[in-house]
Automatic annotation (TrEMBL):
A Pfam family assignment: GCV_T
Domain spans labelled GCVT N-terminal: 11-106
NCBIfam families in UniProt: ygfZ_signature
Organism: Bosea lupini
Name assigned to this protein: Uncharacterized protein
Taxonomic lineage of the native organism: Bacteria, Pseudomonadati, Pseudomonadota, Alphaproteobacteria, Hyphomicrobiales
């Protein structure tokens, strides 16, 4: 079974008597659903509803010290730690960056990891992503036999956005990054930072931009981050790519207009089309009869 070490991921530990309530009051997902048997996916937002950081939340069994581990992009940890400390106030919570001691591995083929690989958990975003584990940094490479390129090619093929690659922190709403499709936001829990904006977008259907999978001509890849356009209008930007497929944050209404007008969509000199709609996506796609302003 191929295993990848996700060298671009780090680990934050949130522990203490108030750890669960502390996180539940500030993050987008409902912490009541996070148990040692079930990880969660969520994020921390600005008051304006933009994503500061996103993470998988893993409950640590009491026998191993309790609390929670946040599996999150390594480069985003300084900003995330700064915000978590800001919101800590008098809560009985300890915050620790474990990235110099721990790392994240993943089953590259979407399968299962050995039970003794470390703190093992199923990726909560999509079953096809398989299992991950937080392991000691020392010795982690002994578990690894696949590359980051292998992991990201599978992720891209499944249509799963990656923060910092497929959407920009500080400039993206949760709906745009598919939080609402991947279980990353609760619409039933109480208030959290940015909740009003997220709730308004949900109920008014005002998320016009979305990360969607695309296919490029001739199986080639444009440079990450290039502008996508059609008919002289900007559609958005391309994120990560592999094997002629990619993820792009696009204005879907403009994509629909381009399709209706017969304009070719282009990114970095390469023509592209929308890939088939992933099964986990529930919002209407351009070209579908139900597509409209609520998309």
């Amino acid at each position: 079974m191929p295993v990848t070490r996700l060298v671009d991921r780090g680990v934050i530990r949130v522990s203490g008597d108030d750890a669960r309530d502390f996180l539940d009051n500030i993050v987008t997902n409902a912490m009541e659903t996070v148990t040692p048997e079930r990880a969660g996916y969520g994020g921390l937002l600005t008051p304006q509803g933009k994503i500061i950081g996103d993470f998988l939340v893993v409950a640590v069994p009491d026998a191993e010290g309790g609390g929670f581990l946040l599996d999150t992009p390594l480069l985003q940890i300084p900003d995330l730690m700064k915000k978590l400390k800001l919101y800590k106030l008098r809560a009985k919570v300890a915050l620790d960056d474990l990235s110099e001691r721990a790392t994240v591995i993943a089953a590259t083929d979407g399968g299962r990891l050995p039970a003794d690989a470390g703190l093992v958990y199923a990726d909560p975003r999509l079953p096809e992503l398989g299992e991950r584990a937080i392991v000691d940094l020392d010795g982690a490479d002994e578990l690894v036999d696949a590359s980051m390129d292998d992991y990201h090619a599978r992720r891209i093929g499944l249509g799963i956005p990656d923060g910092g690659r497929d959407f920009l922190y500080g400039d993206t709403f949760p709906h745009e990054a598919l939080f609402d499709q991947l279980g990353g936001v609760s619409f039933r829990k109480g208030c959290y930072i940015g909740q009003e904006v997220v709730s308004r977008m949900q109920h008014r259907g005002t998320a016009r931009s979305r990360v969607v999978p695309v296919v490029f001509s001739e199986g080639l890849n444009p440079d990450d981050g290039v502008e996508a356009s059609a008919g002289g209008k900007t559609l958005g930007r391309v994120g990560s790519c592999a094997d002629g497929r990619g993820l792009a944050l696009l204005r879907l209404d403009r994509v629909a207009d381009a399709l209706a007008a017969g304009h070719e969509m282009d990114a970095g000199g390469l023509a592209f089309t929308l890939a088939p709609k992933p099964s986990f996506i529930r919002f209407p796609y351009p070209g579908e009869p139900e597509f409209g302003a609520a998309a």
